[in-house]
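Worked example

This section walks through a single chain of length 30. The input is the sequence exactly as stored; nothing has been trimmed or padded.
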Amino acid sequence: MNLTSILPSFLFDFLTLDLSILGGNGYEKI
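Given that input, the structure is written out below as tokens.
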């Protein structure tokens, strides 16, 4: 496994999950 390829995908999944939880409302408040 390559960390350089795993980390970007992991961060992307985390961001999309965070945005889905916030529903976009939290993003607008920032």
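What to look for: The mean pLDDT is 71.
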